[in-house]
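User: two proteins, same treatment. go.

Assistant:
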Amino acid sequence: MRPADVENWIRGIIISPNADHPDVTSQRAETPAGGDRGALFKRRRRLASPLTPPKSARSMSQNAADGMTPATKRRRMIAEVATISDSSEDELGLCGAGGARAAVENGTGTDAALAFDADATPRAPRRSAKASPVKYRHLPQAGAASPTISGASSTSSTSNRSMSTTSSPRKRMRALEVAFEPVEVRPLVPDMPQDMPQALAEFCSQLFDISQGVGVLGDSTQDSFMEHSNPAMKRVASVPRHFSAARDHLGPTPSIDCVLSILISAQECQKYPEISWNLEVHAPVLSLALRPPGSPPFSQPCGFVACHPARIIKEYLNGSVPDKMIDFCLYLDPEALKDRAAVREIELTRQSLAGYMINHTDYDPLRKRPLTLSIETKKPGEGLENATLQVGAWHAAQWRFLDAMADRLGEDSTSLSFLPAIIIQGHDWNFAATTREGNKTVLWLKQTIGSTNSVLGIYQIVTALQSFRRWTQKTYWPWFRATVLGLPSSP
């Protein structure tokens, strides 16, 4: 292309202004005095340079079609942002919007409007020295009312009862540690009984013997082990400490075939989900221990029930709680005990209780059956932190309920030494417990009971469960009768 052709092209642009650039349409080509064609060329080049469209979502031609100049567009954009900032400036982080808005409203011009950069990265607002202190929503505020039996007031209302349930179990456990009624985790070490209440230490000692296989088989079963075709049964029978005459006082010793059936199911469920373990392994073990052969379910004074749907009644909540609580529990049934006075008193007491429940949970099967032992289950090797959180929160709510019930009668709930729990991880069953120190719940973790990975381990678990049943009937029920129901400790 010849230089003359380029010059003619530039002259044509100046004579016919580009409609896409309103600022250029007002320009007129004028030849400088003296006919300096070089100066004219430089000026034309200067005018031509902005003709390349800018890289933006809205072109200048669109602005022109709307009757908006760039300055007008900026003012409109700032005004819109300023309107939003009136109500949510802190949330959006538009720290500079206030100054830009004032400049626009005061009509100080485009330069003032440019004080706000719409493309700038939003920044968090600076906190002034006089800013209000942060309120931790998961902690009760000073002066909050104590939980009442009627449930009219609670320190754990829906608006401030919990942090996000999507937080990690560790963070939520930390929240419970500093809650108004905290939960503290301590190690459960049978060899250091001086660190725990005496009654809990004595119970741990019994469970330790069971975990070592001491007295987990009745004397009457020794011959059946010796005569069994499975060589493993003969090895069990060859250890004298496994057998005891006192074992039969806890309940019947299950047959070898029943235990082998559970062992096979446990091996099959090794990589199955938690619900399969609950249905195929854990529930049959509980039945083997607590439902004598030939007796109908739910007819025993101390029974068990699956309670996966159970939730804490809001009046007894304490800070952050998990979505899921426990999987099974042991309960005491006054009707099966034929304790008419207790049945009548429970019915009367429920009329003034939150949810009309004699427990801290709204689970209907437990509405008139006091809950004693809580059981949480997990897959093999998984979920100990979650289980710790669930048992800690669950027991803290149970203590809150018992505190309120005891206060009603002028009694002291801490006269009950501990509340028991079991945490199951696949094959492994572990004992846990909570005690009360003032308004603090102390969660003690954990002591091995037995494993469904062996015949002897299953017998250990069955023996331990029958020990919990005896504790429920001999210790918990007399205490509950006197401290919660206001009746004599024995019928």
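Protein 2:
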Amino acid sequence: MALLTGPFAPIFEFVGAAALLLTVVVLVFAAVLLVLTVASIRSGRLYFPRLLRPGLTAFEGLMRALFKGVGLEDQEMLAFFVKLGNTMNARAFAEVPVAERAIFLPQCLRNAACPADLTPEGIRCKRCRRCTVGEAMDILEGLGYRVFIVPGSSFIKRMVKKYRPRALIGVGCLTEVKEGLEMADRLGLVGLGVVTLKEGCVETLVDWTSLYETALLGLAPSAVPEDLHLTAHEEPARDPAVDQDQPIRPDVADDRAGP
């Protein structure tokens, strides 16, 4: 107590005031993030995505608690994280040549009786037609992508280190895609995610059309096989992360960005 009335009193008062001010600033900022996030989810638009993304990343623990307090489920929050990341990365992804992109598929998409072999390059599909993975890989590889079936959590980092892609598409459940997008950010890669239609460890499903549409971002129409019946764009005219008038592709960013 003597210190509080001695020569150190001004220092303690300054530290206390600074801590209080910092706490107030953080809480106000968190409240703003909460309002923007809830408004974005409810309206189907992304408001101030350039503020939301770093803010939600920096204060994820606090924001999770606040989201629960207002009744947002974890799945809603994860879906919003993925949507936000996809929206912000769409333009940069489209600018990367397809030869420098990679696609990572989860092994849970396979048939339960899949005869594929495990190799250092991942699970090697034998095109047995027990599932649709082989056909999808042929289409995506025909576009110029490196496509991998992921056998484990460390596999993606190994392939990134070996092949040095600049951009990637990850397919998986909400949690896997969110974590994959965060990993891509840490590695300095442009990442997009496509979420499976159901979660599980065996015979899950994905909307292949959504994956193809994501893969076609930035590709010239002449590079797209006619049987895909999808529209490819040379490059986006505007940044979907900040332009309200830019249509945003499903699963890449299926809402329009706000201001």
